[in-house]
Request: fold
Amino acid sequence: MCPSDAQPHYRINLVRCTDTVLNELKNGCTRKSLSLTYAMAMRSAAQGDDKPDWPKINKAILAKYSMSGLEFIKKRAWGILSGKVQP
Reply:
C-alpha cells in the first residue's frame, strides 16, 4: 500500500512487439505513430518483457519507408525514451 501522499508507480510494456510493429506497417501507420510503438518495443526489450525480432522489424520498415524512414523512426523512438520528444 502506498502512503497517502505517494504516487503509485506503474509500468506499461508492449508484448508481441514484432507482431505489433508488423501489423502497424501492414495497416498504414504513420512513421510518427510507428516511432512510439518502436520506442515501447525498445523499452519492453530492455526490461526483459519481450524479445523483438529487430532484424525482421527493421527489414519491414526499410521495405516500406527506406533507410531515411528507418532512421527517422529510430531517432524519434530514442527521443521519446529520453523524454526529449513528446509522443
In short: The chain has one domain: 17-82. The helical segments are 17-26, 31-46, 54-82.
